[in-house]
Structure prediction request, 328 residues.
Amino acid sequence: MRQLQAFGPRDLRIVEVQDPVLSSEDEVLIDIRACGICGSDKWYWSVDRLAAKIAGHEVAGRIIAVGDEVHHLRAGDRVAINNVQGCGYCEACQQGRYVRCANGVVHIGNGFADKVVVPARNCLKLDDDLSYAEGSLIFDNWGTPYAAIKRTSLQQDDRVAVIGCGPIGLAAVALVKSFGARVIAIDPIPERLKAAALLGAEACMTPSEVTAADVDIVLECSGKAASYELAQSILRIGGTLVAIGEGTAFTLTPKVLIHKHLTFLGSLYSSMEDGKQIQDMIRNGVIRPMSMVTHQFTMGQLQTAFGDIVECRHGLIKAVMVNDNRKE
Prediction:
């Protein structure tokens, strides 16, 4: 099969390798049909040597083979893959909440390839009405903000600020709107603010345009220190700050936390139940995940187009890799 390997800075190559094989009776082999390209995949463009891992974790495809202990799935099933693997045995894993595994999580990658082996428990059967591209966006792109919102006490007509309107933040905008709340979108990139407006944000502004505000909830999706500090300043007394964006350090001042009676929450990815609920929302027309997908690339095109994705050039907001040797 083919893999898209990173050999060094801006050096992606398609390499033929052996097909992966089932190593456990509870695994399945997936023929990858679509893989969303996440902001966290950008590291693949700037490695300084041959990368030990294959990027890509927003995967949907068709099952080719199942292990002997897999009884709820069969070859031919269309599935979306939850990208976080737990131990499978602890209480959280038994509930399909692998992100809370008591024994630690493993991030499933290898999506920039033709095939991948994953635990059967990480597979969500796709409804026939959903495309593979839609399926690839269920667990991370839409499940991540959905799980974060569920951790709050969001009420209809609450004022919610979404800081960072990349694909995760834009999904947050659409989800908050679907729950009947009012959304303020904050991002420095005009194209993202335009997309946020189309998804239902009632106010769209750059960070420098934000003045005094009084919001109930902030969903921080950028992972920038300045954004977390902005979030603390615009929350009302008794407000809630939800950390979704990572990769930074920031100052959380106890005086602000205490005097404003703030609630501070963190949320990582999504559960199997979250994925089922997102799929239901797509099927019922509540959300439209492809509305933010501006570009689709084949694996071969990614060799040169990845730089455009990293730099968000040509109006790119969200990209999906579709396998060019697949007919469905």
